[in-house]
Specification:
Blueprint lengths: L2 H15 L12 E6 L4 E5 L12 H11 L5 E7 L10 H10 L6 E7 L2 E6 H4 L11
Parallel strand pairs: 3-4
Antiparallel strand pairs: 1-2, 1-3, 4-5
């Protein structure tokens, strides 16, 4: 996967981040996910006064995609803080595994277009489990 794809995913995650609903934490997160057929879905975090009803950006994007018939994740990008790297939470990592094409999909963690790191799924959730036993 080339850098142009990464930059496009970063841009889409940043746009999604701006739509976050975070009246409690004021911590905005955006995610963009590349699915099969080069389709990109994005999502933001959505908080709720009942914290358990809060949804992360990654899961928002994945659930949007699955509801539209897309089920194979090829790459994912997350952008939260501009000062630190914001990684997916444990629940999001588990949902990512459920739909990941392989354990080697790129996970792009960005602070912006010019500052990001790329990991493989297997590196951010070692010993995970799935129906495909990916990691």
């Amino acid at each position: 996967m080339d850098e142009k794809v990464y930059i496009n995913l970063i841009d889409e995650a940043f746009k999604a981040r701006e739509k976050s609903y975070t009246p409690y934490s004021n911590f905005k997160v955006g995610a963009s996910i590349l699915f099969e057929n080069s389709k990109i879905f994005s999502g933001c975090n959505i908080e709720n006064a009942s914290y358990g009803a809060t949804n992360c950006a990654e899961r928002t994007a994945i659930f949007k995609a699955v509801s539209e018939g897309y089920k194979i994740i090829k790459a994912i990008c997350v952008i939260g803080s501009f000062e630190d790297f914001t990684y997916p939470c444990g629940i999001c990592r588990q949902v990512i595994i459920e739909f990941a094409e392989s354990e080697n999909i790129p996970i792009i963690i960005a602070q912006g277009r010019d500052k990001y790191v790329v990991h493989k799924l297997k590196d951010i959730i070692p010993f995970g489990f799935s129906k495909n036993n990916l990691v």
